[in-house]
Each structure stands twice: as C-alpha cells, then as structure tokens.
Fold this protein.
Amino acid sequence: MWALNQLKTAATSISRFAAPDSLRTLYSYNVQNGWVPSKSPLQTAASGSNTATYQPFALLTWNVDFVRPLIHERFQAALSHLEELLSPQKVTPAPQPTIIFMQEVHSSCFEVLLASDFIREFYEPTNISSLQKYSTLTLVPKSLVSQVACVQRTPFTGATVMDRDCLYVDLHVRLPATPEQKALRLRIANTHLESLGFGLEARSTQLQRISGLLTETGIDGGFVAGDMNAISEADNALPEQYGLTDAWKEEHFTPTDIVDSSGTGEIEGHTWGYQPPAQFPPDRLDKILVVGKLAAVDVQRVGVGLKVKDTDTWVSDHYGLLAKIVLRM
C-alpha cells in the first residue's frame, strides 16, 4: 500500500537537478568502437558556452509495453514502425528531426535497440542499458545533439512504489533571427507516472515535481510527455493545476457527449484500451503537456492497429503520440 506519510512529506518539496557530476551523457555509435559515450554535455551545462542555433523538431512518445509476450519481436516491430515514420531515407520530403520518448522499455530490449541500423545512423540514446526491469528511454536525433546541454534522470524519491522517475534533457539554443541572437534554455521531460488507482496521489506529487523543474528560474520553456496514467477526472485536472497545457485538448476539444464510432477512440484521442480491449474503459492515458515558450501542434496518434508481422499480437497496448514542437515568442 502507498506510504501516505512519505508521500505527504515529499509533496512539500520540489526536487532540483543533482550536482553536475551526476549528470549523464548521450551515446553514439561508430564502427570501430561500437556504442560509446558522446562528447560530454557537462561543460555546456556548467558554462552555457556551447550554444547551438535553434532547429525546429518534432516529438514522438510511446509506451511500448514490457508485459506481453513476444517482447523482442514487438520492440523490433515498434522500431520498424518508427523508421517508416521518421527516417529521412524512407519519408519524402524528409520529416523534421524527431526526438523519441519511450516508456516501458524492457531491459532485454536494449540489445534490439542497439543493433538497429536506423538507431545507429540517426540517433543518440540517453542510455544503453538499464538496471531496472523496464524504464524510460529518450532518443535524440544526431542533428539535434549540438543543442543538448545536459541529460538527467531524477527519481521520484519518496513518491513512488514502482521505481518511477523522470528523464530530462536540456536544450540550450540561440535564435539567429533576433538582433542579439538571444539564447534560450528549453527542458524536455520523458516520464511514466505511477500506475493504477492507488497511484493518484503519487501521480499528483510526481507531476508537481516535474512542473517545478520545467518552470524553474532560467528555463524558458519545456514539455513533459509520456504515459501519465490519467485514469480519472482528478488526473485530467492535474496539468492545469500545475500550470501545464494539455496539447491534445488545445487542438481537439471534444464535447463529452460525442462518442467516436471508429472503434479506436480517434475523436476522444484515446491512447489505450483497444489493443486488446481491457477490463477498464479506454482513455487518453498518454499526453504531451507544455509550458512557457514551447507548444506542441499537429498532435496525432501512431501505432493504431499495429501488430507484429504474421501474428495476431499487438505491438503495444498503447498508441503513441506524434507532434511538431514550436516556439511561442
């Protein structure tokens, strides 16, 4: 059961990034050495000296489900689907560089990830292994790596019984169109909030902490995306309560009495409950929440109806979300 006394204590404090020596790096692949740490972002994080020119980008977030059978086959199918959507070698005209957030990546799936030619050529991951059975993973396009100032995984200490955390990437960019080439620091967050009904109080605390880091002094804008496990009306009220804007709601306001007839919850924006049908009603569990000078537009779902080839197995029980990220100046 949830330790209420710990949770209430944790709710009173907003966590801050750890000391620079605990900051993480990205990883890059080369034929000679395999996967190795990229040039460390720590100097950038400490001095802000290496500020790259802002480049527009997109976001794709997806819970890839660590529970069901055929875990490696499903993960490979997910990667193949991402390649079909995002690879400049397969899409014409070439899509915007797209940061990928994944949740529920099984520890054994890193072998599949790191063997992918698509990932090797176009992405740098935040981690190449995990000590947990499943975890979050962020993949940064190589064309955006110069914008990365730091990478930080922050546990929800005292506010989780499921070892959940939030994975942050800071982007430090300058705007060439402004007279002073103004610099901006943007913070993006990948998370998987606490599950199930007893996690409501935990989810509130977790999102409050994330909001605190997205809006702290020196951060010009940001977003958090992932599996918010929003299974109740109280969950749906949390983003506004903590000063975050729900990107799907901004674009797709739907009266509550309208029900989608497609069988996939398209009108409502549902991201879970169809693959397969579950004991709980379908809902919009996955979200992109923005704040400050960042917005998410053209939000659409991905992975709808996707199955592993030659099987009747869904790739994931969740749909993913794909959106363009734009600056609001």
Notes: Residues 1-15, 18-22, 42-46 have pLDDT under 50 and may be disordered.
